[in-house]
Write a structure and sequence with these properties.
There is one protein chain. The protein is mainly beta. The protein has 1 helix and 22 strands. The chain is globular and about 50 Å long.
Length: 283
Amino acid sequence: MQYTYDYTTFGGQDGAIFGDTLFRFDHAGNCRVFSMTEKMQTGAFTLARTDEWMPHSNAVGFGIPTPDEPFPPLYTNVYNTYAKADDRREGCLCVYRLFQQENVSRCGEDYTATLVQVIRIGFTEDRDLWKSLDGNGDTRPYGNFCVDGQRGKLYAFVMRDKEHVTRYFTFDLPATTDGEEVDGVRYVTLGREDIRDTFDGPYMNYMQGACCRDGVIVSVEGFGMTAPNLPALRVIDMTARKETRFVPLHEYGLTVEPEFADYWNDTLIYSDATGKLYRIEEL
């Protein structure tokens, strides 16, 4: 595998690329917009209702394009921000609609991001399916998602500490018009009956970012050069129902906490927490 430094310094959590535009989020719902071709920041905005949902954005992706919208729906996970709250919001995914505003100065609030839907896993307390331990449950981040816009699927996965596995679930991706509407937002709860497939794979050490193309997830994980949470990349084939590749990134000189992975055209782009972007070749 060959890595080539490219582009610029542009830090944050995960994000998503649409066309030639990178949307890179921080842990509090703030986004900086970046031109992949111009290699510079071109805008900024904040997701709506972040004070209510606090999306951590370590799993961000675009969904299925619609002809009457400028951008596909944007999906970002809530993470375990609410670990000590009465409602810990395990297995929650926020869905946004993006619109670009006209006649706004560069790097201002150039977009609006309206919360239109919340998708929730309805069996996070189920010891057979989701949670494997008592009390606060599994210590690894829970409620990680990948959206497969090409196949209309939603993949959810959770790290189960007791069995030391990552469990993957496949669902049909809900339409943004699905769910019961409350205060302008539609709420969808996915139950046992909505599971289309599930399987277990190797244990993942703190997933930091992920993307999906045609049923194949690419995820990055780790915190830095502290074992066992070393920087790594995984490839999971959801059709074959297995992890097909594990890449220890530190062996290629990438020792900073990973935070982002997505495709720009046919090239996989990787970024660490400081924002250095790399092309990943021959994956």
